[in-house]
Each structure stands twice: as structure tokens, then as C-alpha cells.
Amino acid sequence: MELAWYALLGLFFATYLVLGGYDYGVGLLLARRTAPATRRAALNAVGPFFLGNEVWLVAAVGILFGAFPTLEGELLSRLYPAVLGALAGVVLVTAGVQLRSRPAGERARAGWDRVVVTGSALAALGWGALLAGLLQGVPLRADGHVAGMTHVFTPFVAAAALAMLTLVAAQGATFLTLRLPATEVAPVARLARRLIPVAFATVGAATVLGLLSDRVRAAVVQPAAAVLLPLALVAALLAARTALRWRRPGLAFAATSAALALPVLLVGAALWPWALVSTVEPGAGLTVADAAASGPTLRLLGWLTLPLLPALLGFQAMCWWVFRGRTDGRAPVYW
Amino acid sequence: MNTLLLARLQFATTTSIHFLFVVVTLGLVTLLVGLQTAGYLTGKPIYERLTRFWGQLYVINYVLGIATGIVMEFQFGLNWSGLSRYVGNVFGAPLAIETLVAFFLESTFLGMWIFGWHRLRRGVHLALLWGVALTAYASAFWIMVANSWLQHPVGYEVRDGIAHLTDFGALLTNPTLGFAFGHVVSAGLVTGGVLMAAVSAWHLIRRTPDFALFRTSLRLGVLTTAISVVFLIGFGFAQFGPVGRVQPTKFGGGPERDALVAEWTARFGPGDYTPPALSSVGLGFMILIGFTLFLGTLLVPLLFRDWIIRLRFPLWLVLLALPLPFVAVLLGWIAREVGRQPWVAYGLLPTGQAVSPVGAGTMLTSLIGFSLLLGTLAVTNWVLLARHAARGAADPALGRPPAPDADTHPEPVFA
Questions:
Q1: What are phi and psi of B158, to 5 degrees?
Q2: DSSP H or E stretch at residue B136
Q3: CA atoms within 13 A on the CB side of A2
Q4: Bias category Basic and acidic residues: which stretches (chain B) (predicted)?
Q5: Beta strands at B349-350 and B343-345: parallel, antiparallel or unpaired
């Protein structure tokens, strides 16, 4: 039962990274010096999906709190700086994207665009740092005390945060290749093709630093997963590059999406059966089973929410179906 | 500075800002459902214009509701890890249900509603707004279930120093839940009603050319306020009985309080078990504001033959009433939440034991950073709301018909 809820938690967070990934990717690409019209077109390409994408994060944290209350408290408070950055980023993007077109002046809109760029960067860096922080373990003691926050700041965390940033940017460019009107796709497709090798390099750097890090090597329980899943990530990036070259944006988007979901699977699988590994006292970490809520709570959540999951996914699918295809002049422009 | 105080300040700031936006969301979405449904049934264009104008204000307001809501959700883990460790088994369940069953769908529906004008069939588009409203109410309900549990923990047993869920039904029949939920919903409707009436009054004072439209929304706003303020006051006073019984320390002295304080002193050691005076002061002023808004019912007869507009001074009264519901909801929240101190879960978990073991420096950074961030965003949001409210209903961006395809390759409209 705990495994099922852990998998569901992973599914929601990974889906958030995939969907939120293109929100933030498109947000990062606003940093390019393009015409105001191009920027607005990019934002409206995300438009109908934006709110539905962000809620995957809210739902993931809801599952974390409901099904893994102990993990929620320990994880978020131990990785405070990473969470703080990600959260500030999410807030800035949420407000920036929805408010940027409300003022009529181009200057005010350009100002909001900078807010969106900053927020997107913070969110991507923060989530990358959080995943890396999990993989290198936290100084968890049996008495629950933790001294300082310096344990988060390591080269591996920095490299992983940067890798997430480039993955997200590549995801955003690929999404726009898939979604903008066919006549306007060429520049973003070129950009996506250039971003994928960059992502490739940063993911490689993070992997190397992870392999060199004592803390990561000590924390990883399942070395097979820790080796195979980064390879799968690299394969996904190669596939995305090939698909972009063949002008198959749908395939490329599937591949970059896989590249964003894989880090979540990597953290979950490499540490299993641990959810949180302690770097100071080997036994003081939290296993998934210990972190989970007690039986009655999980059963209640199961009975109440699982029958509704098809409805949740169904309405998300309805949103994707209604607004499928490339943007055109028929849809209202709101953002 | 101690970590506990900083964590409490941060929660108070975030929740206050969150609440100011959420009551508007709850109230306006209900009125919007009425407007769009009226438009669907009668086919009159005025209702579509009203829906677009108020819908745009609703959507702008919604932004800060989400932004602050996300920060609050994370704060439980960031700053209050003791809460999730000791009572997460019980308290976490209603919050998880809220995110999955209510909020997840609410936002998905709203995204489709914003971008679905002229693209979805009118019935589907209307159904989406109904979905937004129903899930918003469901969301408020589950949040109140969670909050009521902190006010009066029920349906659990403590084993190995941790609370475990034993009876979920008890959470739903919590004596601190029913009337409080009714109170919050009525507060949302009053706030939405006063906002709608005040914005319309401003346009009518300035002799808007859009007379018919703002006349309709003034009437709707005044009537909504007048009806829901009665429920608001009723549900408010109805809470004194049940809440006073389960929380003897909240409303002041009496033998029950002394007995409870003696019991706590025996179990948890000596300490100050009376809530700060702030809570009862807040309660007093809130009741005053409630009665002031109740006087608003006197405006209802003036709706006859538009005397409310022709006399003009009632319009000024409506406009000046705009801050009242916002001040009242903050005071009411203070009365409820500060009134249960020093407990995070009443009589079960002292607030001091719930705070995360993080340094004061980290907590201070987080407090200053998020207070500045959310405060700035809130003010910016209100400025934008005021500008859009003042601009009138001539051509809101929400639901603007797409430009006809003039040239061969389609381009979005950039207005």
C-alpha cells in the first residue's frame, strides 16, 4: 500500500515537472529579445494548460502531506533553501504569467516578462536542487535536530540545478515547436535543436559530479537504478535531438518529457526502500514505510480519492483535447 | 528573535493575504454562475457583458489566491514539521482530499473557462463555470474540516506519541465545523456582494454611459449582501454555543476554563494557557462591522424605482462600505485562530512543539522574503483590479472575440 502511494506521489511530481517544465521553459525563453507579439504568442500557446499544469504540484504536495506526513515535514524543512527558491519561483511565474497582459503598456508587460523569466529560473533551479539534495542525503539525527543549511550547498546540487534549468528550457522550446503556428515554428525549432546539446552537457556534468560525490555514493542503495536511469535520460535527449532533426516535434516533446520525468524516478528508485537518507547516522533516515501515514488514513484516502482519479485525469485530458493542435487566430488571446 | 514567533508571524501574514483573496473568489464565482446562467437561459447580451466584466475581475483576483495558497501549503512542512509529525495522520487527510478532489479540478476547469470563450459550446462553457464554483465550495469545506480539527481534535487516538485516525466521520460532524463553514461561505457572499455593489456604485456616481449594466450589478450586489449578511450574523452567533463548550479558554473566564487550565497544567506543565487579548478585541470589532453591514439591508427598499441611484447619497454609502467586509474577515480569522493559542491542535499539541527545528536566520529570511514578495504582489494585484474595475465593461480582454482571419496566415490579436 505504501509503495502504491509512493508511486502515485512520484507520478504527480513527475507529471508536474513535465507539464510545469514547459511552462517554465516557455517562461525562460521570454528572456530572448524578441518582438512583444512573439512573446505574447508564446505565452498564449501555454495559455489554456497553465493553471491545469501548476495544480499537479499542489496535488503532489497534498499527497505528500496526506499519505506521507512525516516525510513532508522532514523533507521540506531539511531542504529549506531549495524549497524556498522553488516556491518563490512558482509564485513569481504564477502571478507573472496571469497578470502580464493586464496592463496595456509594453513597458509594464516587459517588466512582468522579466518577473516570469526570474521565476522560471528559480523554480527550475529549486526543483533540480531539491532532487539532488534528496539523492545526496540530509544530516538527519534521531533526535530530529539539524544544524545549519550548508549541507545543501554542494557542487553536485549546483550541477543538478543547472541541469534541470537546461532540461526545462529545452522542454519549453520543444513545446513551442509543437504548438505555435506552422509558419512561426522555424526559429524555436532551431533553438530547441541548440538547447538539447546544452542540456546533454549539463546532465553529463551532474552525473559525473554525482558519481564523484562520497555522499551520493553512500546514499544510493540501488546502484543499478542509479546507473541505468541516467543512461535512459541521455538516450531520451538523443532521441529528442534526432526527432527534431526529422521534424517530428511530437516525438521530440515525448522525449524531452521523459527526460524531465526520469530524475524523479531516479531519486525514488535509487534510494528505495529509503525515502530520506541520513548522512550522519545510518539508521536515522526515513524509510518509505515509516514515512507513510498509518493504515486507516491511507485506506480512507484510497477510498475517497482513487475512484476520482479517472475523473481528474479525464478532465485534464479534456483540456488537452479541446485545445489540441497548433495555436491559430481562432482562440481568444488572454495572456 | 525566536523561531516560533517568526514562524507564527509568517503563517499569519500568508494566511491573512490568502484569506483576503479567497473570500472574493468564493463570493464572485457564485455571482458569476448566476450571471452566466441567466445569460444562457435568456440569451440577453447584457448578461454576457456582465459575465465578462466581473469574470475578468474574478480571474485577476484568483491569481493571488493560488500564489498565497501554494506558499501556505508548503509552509506546513517548511515551518511546522512538528505538526505533520504528530498529527499529520489525521490533519493531513482533509488537506490531501482538498487538493486532489477540489482544487485540482477547480484550476483545470478555470483554465478551460478562460480560454474556452467562442471555442466551446455555450452549454459546456457554462458547465465549466459551475464546476469551478462547486469545486471552490468543496475546497472551502475541506479546508474548514482541517481547520476545525485543529480547533477541536476528534476521531483520533494517540499511540506511540503520534495521533492516528480512528473515526473520519467525527471530523465531518465536528461541532466547530458546520456553523463556521456557513459563516465563511456567507462572508464570501457578503464580500462579493459589497465588491460588486461598490464598483457599480462608483460607475453610477460618475454617470456612466453603461447605465443599464451597472444598474443590474448594483441591484445584484445589494440584494446578495442583504440576504447573506443575515446568514453571516446568524452563523456567527450560532458558533458561540458549540465553540464555547469545546474551547472554554476562547471567550474568557468561567469555572470550565479554570478546570481545563488546571488539567493542562497537570499534563503539560505550568504555562500561560489564555489566548492573547488580540482575539477578543478582533471579535468585538468584527461584530460591530457585521451590524454596520446589516444596516445595508435598509438600502433594499430603495431599489424600488431606482431610488438608490436617484438619491445618489446611498451610492456613496455603498462605495464607502467596500473596506468593511475585508477588515471583518481578517478580524474574524484572528478571533478564531489567535483565540485557540497557545495550541496548534487545541489541548493536544502546543504551538511551540510544532515548529520545525530550523535556525532563526533561515526562518527570518523566509519570513521577510515571502512577506515582501506576497505583499508586493497583493498590492499590485489590487491596483490592477482597481484599474480594470474603473475601466468599465466596454471591452474586457476576457472573452474578447478572436479577430477574423483577414490575411492568409493566421496571427493572434495583439491589442
A1: -95, 120
A2: helix B122-151
A3: 17
A4: 406-415
A5: antiparallel
Q: Which residues of B339-364 are buried (b: 16+ CB within 10 A; e: fewer)?
A: bbbbbbbbbbbbbeebbbbbeeebbe
Per-residue pLDDT of B302-352, as tens digits, reads 888 888 888 889 999 999 999 999 999 999 999 999 988 889 998 888 898
CA–CA distances in Å: residue B356 to residues A1, A92, B9? 28, 25, 14
Q: Does B78 touch chain A (CB under 8 A)?
A: yes
Q: What SS3 class is residue B42? A: helix
* CATH number given to A2-138+152-295: 1.20.1630
Question: Domain coordinates of chain B in residue numbers?
Answer: 3-156+171-391
Does B96 contact A at CB distance below 8 Å?
yes
Q: A118-164: per-residue pLDDT in tens?
A: 999 999 999 999 999 999 988 887 766 666 678 889 999 999 999 99
DSSP character at residue B401: P
Encode B45-89 in three state secondary structure.
HHHHHHHHHHHHHHHHHHHHHHHHHHHHHHHHHHHCHHHHHHHHH
A residues 159..198 contacting B (CB < 8 A): 181, 183
Q: Tell me if chain B has a CB within 8 Å of the CB of A1.
A: no
B189 CA to centre of own chain: 10
Which chain A residues have a beta carbon less than 8 Å from that of B362?
A: 80-81, 149
Residue B363, CB-side half-sphere exposure with 13 Å CA sphere: 21
Of B92, B357, B358, the CB nearest to A66: B92
Q: How far apart are CA B311 and CA A88, in angstroms?
A: 49
B138 touches chain A (CB under 8 A): no
Q: Which residues are paired to B164 by β-bridges? A: B157
ipTM value: 0.93
